[in-house]
Amino acid sequence: MSNSRIQTEILLGALFIVISSIVLLYMGFREETKLAESAVVQQAQAIEVGAGLFAANCARCHGQNGEGLIGPPLNDAYFFTDRIKDVGWGGTLEDYIISTVSSGRPVSTRPDQWPGEGIGYAMPAWSQEYGGPLRPDEIRAIAQFILNWEATALEQESITVLEEPVPVSEDPTARGLAVFNAQGCAACHAIQGISSGQVGPDLTQIGTLAATRVDGMSAEDYIRESILNPDAFIAPECPNGECPAGVMPPNFGDKLSPEELDDLVAFLLAQE
Question: Which residues is 254 bridged to in the sheet?
Answer without folding.
Answer: none
